[in-house]
């Protein structure tokens, strides 16, 4: 009921996650990121606590594979979990427990790792990873290109209802945090439309936060 791509931009060092699910509000539970540290997707029968637990290990310098092992060892029911992680160096790891739902697959690629469960076919994740590897543009563009490649390859076995895109960079907060918490159809397309609207304004919001004296006008009524 979920598939996701976790990726890093080798040029900027930005880290990001794009994810979709048949469940409501996937962006509230599954993606976890920390600037300069790493990004983690925790899915299948989701335990949100695993995201911060893996990030804590990554921040301590533990490699992603060992970080997943340490985080899972501290919680019961690990065989029900599916996890992916990438650190600030681009190293990746993934885990799919024996109780992962339906057709499932996980695969590491160049500066990325993808995973999914209740898929139409295992090849969906191959398309997801290769879609990221062969894409260009900003990290948000590449993550969404990967998601759209996965959909073209069959996506989930059932309907998808929510999707999210998060990216972290040089500041302490997410520079992109976009979500479609519920849609009757095609939340990934709606998420891509949100990204196209937000993308031209991304730098403006950073400038407003870091140096309001250089911030562009808002261009709305009441803005003098």
In brief:
The chain has helices at 50-59, 64-73, 123-133, 139-152, 187-198, 202-210; strands at residues 2-8, 15-21, 31-34, 38-44, 81-87, 92-96, 105-109, 112-117, 162-168, 176-180.
Explain this structure.
With 224 residues, the protein is α+β, with helices and mostly antiparallel strands. Helix content is 29%, strand content 27%. A six-stranded antiparallel beta sheet has the order 7-8-1-2-9-10, covered by helices on one side. Strands 3-4-5-6 form a four-stranded antiparallel beta sheet, with helices on one face. Helix 1 (50-59) packs across helix 2, helix 3 packs antiparallel against helix 4 (139-152) and helix 4 (139-152) packs antiparallel against helix 5. The radius of gyration is 17 Å and the shape is globular.
